[in-house]
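wait is this the right file?? whatever heres the structure
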């Protein structure tokens, strides 16, 4: 049995009004991972909804977390959970929306900048490092002169919703591949054309 523990945080905003927004795709991916692990979310004192389980029989331990704060304040819950479970930043995976990637693509990276993503900036501050893993789920750029903030706070379009379940499923696969085979193999699989 693997005793490694991974913290996987799916970013988004709380409440039903935000549930279908592009900004909440990280939480959608987390729900898919939760369905694979089984169990029900429980409230944690860190201000997050948490499911603990294993990735497959005898696989690594997972702490799946949906911060209960608004996106820009994701660092508090993520930092507190990492400390509570004794998880190093190298075993933290943050799943989030990414406007610089087309809707049907997923990119994986370790560290680097936050690209104007305030949720990531807050997590970097809370963890004291930028060196944690990210699963960047493409939501595409806003059309015309629309502000990025307005774009990510809109629901996916009807056309996008038709393939969204597949996009979420692939992002959940990317998280599992990161854990089981590492960043390099994950990038080789997901950074090439589907």
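ok assuming it is, sequence goes like this
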């Amino acid at each position: 049995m693997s005793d490694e523990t991974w913290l996987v945080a799916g970013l988004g905003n709380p409440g039903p009004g935000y549930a279908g927004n592009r900004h909440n795709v990280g939480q959608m991916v987390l729900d898919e991972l939760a369905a694979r692990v089984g169990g029900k979310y429980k409230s944690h004192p860190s201000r997050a909804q948490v499911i603990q389980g294993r990735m497959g029989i005898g696989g690594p331990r997972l702490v799946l977390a949906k911060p209960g704060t608004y996106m820009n304040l994701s660092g508090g819950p993520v930092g507190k959970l990492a400390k509570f479970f004794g998880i190093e930043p190298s075993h933290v995976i943050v799943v989030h929306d990414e406007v610089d990637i087309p809707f049907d693509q997923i990119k994986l990276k370790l560290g680097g900048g936050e690209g104007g993503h305030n949720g990531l900036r807050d997590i970097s501050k809370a963890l004291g490092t930028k060196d944690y893993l990210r699963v960047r789920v493409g939501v595409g750029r806003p059309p015309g002169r629309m502000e990025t903030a307005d774009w990510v706070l809109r629901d996916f379009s009807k056309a996008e919703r038709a393939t969204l379940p597949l996009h979420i499923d692939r992002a959940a696969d990317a998280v599992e591949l990161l854990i089981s085979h590492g960043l390099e193999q994950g990038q080789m699989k997901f950074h090439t054309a589907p």
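The CA atoms of residues 109 and 134 lie 5 Å apart. so i think its the right one actually
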